[in-house]
Specification:
By secondary structure, this protein is an all-alpha fold. The chain has one domain (about 1-140). Helix content is about 70%, strand content about 0%. It is elongated, with a radius of gyration of 18 Å.
């Protein structure tokens, strides 16, 4: 259960970071970032990496449980980059087409759903680092 708590805490921390970071960068309050997908760092990558690192530190990196968690993490990270990145590019194209044609109703497709490689890398580093830190702080003496 501790691994899940660490992963959820990392997810919340990343979403809070994004809300603060984008609010400062854009000069306006960006509270929707607390529940939005996309952006720096990838909370998806951080969440699953924190789970896998936490499981590995507790059950062992050679355990079957870690193997399942690692495979799950790789699928989620791949999906955040490739599939959702494609959806993001399509949403931008649809939004641009709708804006260019006055007779077409405006599109409300979100164009912030995928992640770039730097966003994924930052999420992996944040998730792994915070999970390792939590393990160091919370482990029994």
């Amino acid at each position: 259960m501790e691994s899940l708590a660490v992963a959820v805490a990392v997810q919340v921390a990343c979403q809070l970071f994004k809300a603060v970071f984008y609010s400062i960068a854009r000069g306006r309050l960006e509270l929707h970032r607390l529940v939005s997908a996309g952006g720096m760092p990838s909370a998806h990558a951080a969440f699953v990496t924190a789970l896998s690192v936490s499981v590995g530190l507790r059950a062992g990196f050679r355990s079957e449980l870690f193997a399942v968690s690692a495979v799950f993490s790789l699928i989620v990270i791949y999906d955040a980059y490739r599939l959702r990145g494609t959806v993001e590019r399509h949403a931008r194209a649809i939004n641009a087409l709708a804006a260019a044609h006055p007779g077409v109703a405006p599109s409300d497709h979100s164009d912030l759903v995928g992640h770039t490689l730097p966003e994924i890398a930052a999420g992996i580093v944040a998730g792994g680092g915070l999970a390792a830190l939590a393990w160091l702080v919370l482990r029994s003496p």
